[in-house]
Amino acid sequence: MKARDVMTTAVVSVRLDTPTREVAKLLSDKGISAVPVLDTAGAPLGMISEGDLIGRDDAAREARRDWWLTLLAEGEELNPQFLATLHAPERTARDVMVGPVITVDEDTKISDIAKSLTVHRIKRVPVVRDGRVVGIVSRADLVRALAMGDVAAPTPAPTGGGFGETLAGLDERFLHRHRRHDEGPQPAVSPEPDANRLDVADFRALVVDHEHKKTAQQQEQRQALAEQRSQHVAELIHRHISDVGWRSLVQHARQAAEQGEKEFMLLQFPAALCSDGGRAINSYRPEWPETLRGEAAELYSRWASDMKPHGFELTARVLDFPGGMLGDVGLFLAWAA
Predict the structure, then answer these.
(1) Cα torsion at 264, 266, 270, 276 (round to 10°)?
(2) Are 313 and 320 a contacting pair, CB within 8 Å?
């Protein structure tokens, strides 16, 4: 069985600017424990659970008790000292959500989904199609599938991948020279120029012809590159980092440290993989992790759980700007003092 066979398609979601009071009421009304935070195009930016709303430590719970108790009070009178705390600025989904989001596609096997939930210590995962959320798979969905006897042993997620070959374009002039005879009379063809003839107009025409060919070739190359990058983004969105792959990256980072390096690039990926096209990373905005998707998001999650508690840092920066546009982004594990 795959994600599409067990996912919940009636996805309840919120936006970045949704007040936390409305998020809490939505969870209560719908009888659910979490919702995804989506952008205007339906792409996932984060997740909010009951734990995120209430707070996972004493300080956070104290800061957020105002709207939570108001919700539970259902109109009953509250302590005046408590009411005085209600004047704090309203918090929104952006303030409490957890990101980046670990996602799967509709063809992901449920055994692989179960492994992702365990590895990343999460309870649910959005299912995306063309970058948009079309469903949610939770632990409860997997338990129902397990009860039906359809969950097989987890299998390692595929690693690696590559670009498809780009087809060369056809020469338009060749097509014109080989038209079908039933298309009507062909226009007169100018005779080939005499190679021994010295005419500046001919030389200038050769230059113009060369420039036209050069421009057409550059356009074809740009189009081929764009198609390659688009395919690469699609591969990275649906690629998962396996335990073996993660341990290999950590080992390579250790070898880099042995060579005196202070950081190691875990992944190089097109800026288009980010939900905002890499703008937050390029501008050094603190919310850049929320824009990560696919394999980049999973690497961030692995770092947060396995490496961050031990003092390692994770940074991201744009590596190049082809044609003045944001190119590739590097995700770096750092340990410099």
Answers:
(1) -100
(2) no
What is the amino acid identity at position 65?
Answer: R
For residues 128 and 105, give the distance between their C-alpha atoms in angstroms, rounded to a whole number. 5
| Candidate ranges 165-179, 215-229, 273-287; pick with highest mean pLDDT | 273-287
pTM for the model stands at 0.59
Residues 262, 174: contact at Cβ < 8 Å? no
d(CA 47, CA 53): 11
Domains and CATH numbers, the chain: 3-147 (3.10.580.10), 205-337 (no CATH)
CA distance 166 to 227: 8
Strand partners, 109: 2
CA dihedral 15, 19, 24, 30 (to 10 degrees): -40
C-alpha angle with apex 241: 237 to 242, nearest 5 degrees? 145
Is residue 195 very low, low, confident or very high in pLDDT (cuts 50, 70, 90)? low
3-state helix, strand, coil in the chain (%, to 5): 50, 15, 35
